[in-house]
């Protein structure tokens, strides 16, 4: 973050009677240094107001709080009704100082992977800032904006949400010149009730788009293909199946721990592309990034070539070979759509032995949870999975359906048992998918499994 006047940073929130210089904005008191502005967030586990006085002792420039704080002078506190909204407003004020080409990414599934493909492409053309990890909420997105400076030529901002109105706030702060909506799936059904409401929430990204900005949408998705796009944005489509899409992928084939395909662009022709990732869903994420970059005027040949620079983050479909067993680590999060995509990637792996799927509960599905988990067994059968190892209460539905299908299944009470089962069952030449919602902590299974010796 470049140093900025507190009154400029907090424009619209209030006036500091005594202006001061701010060099960082922090919500974690442990990170506060001299001239940091500390924002008191009240969460489920702790309340930032408890640490405000400590932040001032550490040299904080001031405090943003919902109420006066004992031990902090009134002149050092700016009151805000909602500190999260204050974070977004400060992000907008800071972002307005700089003029990179900024793009937004949202969707039910594939946001982070698409963001990483966008970063790979835009980085080939200049200095690029991206959202770190999946910091895509009211705190994470402003923190990304605070990393922009005069040297930033491009910025790729991931935008997530839990309900209606949230992406509107983020996009109005970021003011993107282009955006991608990856797909509309079943994530957040518990909060929003219907996929149509999810579509409404994701389409809010258009609210911050400038006149003529490209909106890149998935033409293979049943809701997006017919979605009404606001007149001030330019509709651009990508697909594998839909032959009318502006950008398509054809001749998809596995190739040396990655995927090679023909990228067909109505405007710019045909390119042979390699990405270091497996599965059609990764191909879709890649071509959406290409579509956005080229519709913003970047060279199509360089953009297509840059897709090969993609790097996985965290445990998102990262391929690890352990004692001859090919393990597809994909345990960061899960939804019905991403589960099917992960199983499709497992199916596409060239293995000499069995395909084993270690699957756990999917969260935030509401009334759809029971049926969605039952359908996982069908997806396993379709992907030629030889053995499903299941963990979680919801996965009991999948186990029940697997029995009906005659699919071999082992139910485990916890992650330790799942790791032990995988160690006993997996052999040299097998392919393994490990996937569940993040709250299932499936990284524990991987860590324990890698510690074991055959």
TrEMBL record:
ATP binds at residues 107-113. InterPro entries: Mur-like_cat_sf, Mur_ligase_C, Mur_ligase_C_dom_sf, Mur_ligase_cen, Mur_ligase_N, MurCDEF_CellWall_CoF430Synth, MurE/MurF_N, UDP-N-AcMur_synth. GO terms for molecular function: ATP binding; UDP-N-acetylmuramoyl-tripeptide-D-alanyl-D-alanine ligase activity. Residues 105-293 form the Mur ligase central domain. SUPFAM superfamilies: MurD-like peptide ligases, catalytic domain, MurD-like peptide ligases, peptide-binding domain, MurE/MurF N-terminal domain. Residues 319-437 form the Mur ligase C-terminal domain. This is UDP-N-acetylmuramoyl-tripeptide--D-alanyl-D-alanine ligase. It comes from Candidatus Ruthenibacterium merdavium.
């Amino acid at each position: 973050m470049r140093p900025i006047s507190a009154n400029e940073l907090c424009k619209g929130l209030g006036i500091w009677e005594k202006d001061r210089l701010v060099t960082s904005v922090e919500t974690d008191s442990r990170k506060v240094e001299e001239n940091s502005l500390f924002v008191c967030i009240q969460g489920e586990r702790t309340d930032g107001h408890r640490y405000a006085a400590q932040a001032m002792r550490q040299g904080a420039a001031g405090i943003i709080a919902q109420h006066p704080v004992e031990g902090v002078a009134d002149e050092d506190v700016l009151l805000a009704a909602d500190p999260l909204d204050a974070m977004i407003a400060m992000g907008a004020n800071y972002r307005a100082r700089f003029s990179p080409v900024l793009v937004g990414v949202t969707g039910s599934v594939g946001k982070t992977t698409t963001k990483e493909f966008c970063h790979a492409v835009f980085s080939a053309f200049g200095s690029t800032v991206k959202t770190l990890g999946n910091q895509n909420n009211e705190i994470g997105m402003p923190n990304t904006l605070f990393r922009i400076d005069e040297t930033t030529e491009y910025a790729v901002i991931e935008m997530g949400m839990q309900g209606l109105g949230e992406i509107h706030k983020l996009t109005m702060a970021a003011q993107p010149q282009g955006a991608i909506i990856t797909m509309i799936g079943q994530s957040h059904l518990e909060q929003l009730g219907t996929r149509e409401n999810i579509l409404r929430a994701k389409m809010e990204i258009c609210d911050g788009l400038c006149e003529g900005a490209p909106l890149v949408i998935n033409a293979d998705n049943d809701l997006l293909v017919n979605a009404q796009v606001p007149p001030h944005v330019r509709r651009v489509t990508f697909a594998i199946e839909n032959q009318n899409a502006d950008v398509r992928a054809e001749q998809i084939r596995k190739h040396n721990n990655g995927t090679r395909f023909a990228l067909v662009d109505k405007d710019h022709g045909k390119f042979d592309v390699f990405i270091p990732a497996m599965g059609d869903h990764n191909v879709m994420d890649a071509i959406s990034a290409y579509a956005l970059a080229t519709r913003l005027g970047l060279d199509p040949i360089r953009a297509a070539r840059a897709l090969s620079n993609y790097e996985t983050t965290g445990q998102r479909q990262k391929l690890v070979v352990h004692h001859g067993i090919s393990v597809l680590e994909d345990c960061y999060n899960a939804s019905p759509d991403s589960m099917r995509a992960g199983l499709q990637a497992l199916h596409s792996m060239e293995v000499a032995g069995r395909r084993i799927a270690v699957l756990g509960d999917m969260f935030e599905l509401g009334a759809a949870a029971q049926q969605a988990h039952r359908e996982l067994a069908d997806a396993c059968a379709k992907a030629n999975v030889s053995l499903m190892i299941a963990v979680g209460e919801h996965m009991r539905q999948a186990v029940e359906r697997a029995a009906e299908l005659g699919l071999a299944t082992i139910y485990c009470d916890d992650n330790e048992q799942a790791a032990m089962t995988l160690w006993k069952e997996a052999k040299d030449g097998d392919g393994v998918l490990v996937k569940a919602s993040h709250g299932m902590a499936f990284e524990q299974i991987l860590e324990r499994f890698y510690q074991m010796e055959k």
